[in-house]
Specification:
It comes from Streptococcus parasanguinis. Helices cover 84% and strands 0% of the residues. It has 56 residues and is an all-alpha fold.
């Protein structure tokens, strides 16, 4: 349950990250979407590592 939720968060972050490369109109908007995608991916990865270290 938790792992699938984290995987979904990671995929959403990855999609947002890739979406930032499609936006060429505004530089600020592109940077914000880029940072949001990276932060979602990092959140999922860090939470997964935290849960794995608690289980071991």
């Amino acid at each position: 349950m938790i792992v699938s939720l984290l995987f979904i968060i990671f995929l959403i972050g990855l999609l947002v990250f890739l979406l930032s490369f499609l936006i060429h109109q505004r530089k600020i908007l592109k940077v914000l979407i880029f940072l949001m995608g990276i932060s979602l991916m990092l959140l999922a990865v860090v939470t997964t590592i935290y849960l794995l270290t608690n289980l071991l």
